[in-house]
Amino acid sequence: MQIIDGKQIAQNVKDGLRKQIIEFTEKGMRIPQLVVVLVGENPASLTYVRNKEKACEAIGMATKTVRLAEETTQEELLKLIDELNADTAVDGILVQLPLPDHIEERKILNAIDSSKDVDGFHPMNIGKLLIGEQTNIPCTPKGIMRMLESIGYQDLSGKRAVVVGRSNIVGKPIAQLLLAKNATVTIAHSRTAHIEQICQEADIVIAAVGVSKLIKANWIKEGAVVIDVGINRDENGKLCGDVDFEDVKEKVKAISPVPGGVGPMTIAMLLENTLHAYIEHERGIENGRTTI
Ligand code: GUN
Questions:
Q1: pLDDT higher than 50, residue 292
Q2: Residue whose CA lies nearest to ligand 1 atom number 11
Q3: For residues 282 and 29, is the Cβ–Cβ distance under 8 A?
């Protein structure tokens, strides 16, 4: 059994990004910048945002967090996004989700310039992902694919993958990425009948439902690879995933832990997407046109 060390893979990615940023700035180019917008004080969001800031600083990427009050109106938020879209020193814009109930999430995500949408949540980027065009790919799914690559799972021809969860952030995009690598993909969710049997047939299980330790050993085929996207608290308040790690670990070929699995990969991919956006923006300016 192999533990897929997301923390280590993420560190390798970040080391590479750091070197690239040094090369760019040594050539006299500007520093890439990620702007995070945080509305309100959701405790999980505050933790995510702090981790993003630290990660940017560690690789020499500029970062700014715009902190807005819970009562901020949709119009005010849209105005801020217009300003960030127009700011040529900003490469990536991330609006932390969830947003307060009075703000329509889709309206906000659709307003972000698709070239600065480092989350990959804009309809243009979602559409490109669907047809296999190069684009900003959502960070968690992108990180999961890197984890699979790290154990030699590049081409997934002949493999059956089951994605448990159908969110726009993880379930739907990871299904597309697995399909693009030739896996035979099933998306299971809360209304799926016989979900355990479906998982038992999987060579790859992606668990992204947000239910503590839902997936037990009897759901898993001997030698399957399991990626756990869940970040939950167990009955003792301890961080845990959607997979019962202790129960399944002897049965699997490889598994990602929580914490130290998908979480660090998500942040590394956010930084990578931001650096790619920067490169595209710089190229656009060099070619005498603006990309925004
Ligand atoms: N909230 C939880 N995960 C994410 C994410 O990947 N991006 C954004 N913007 N908000 C989130």
A1: no
A2: 97
A3: yes
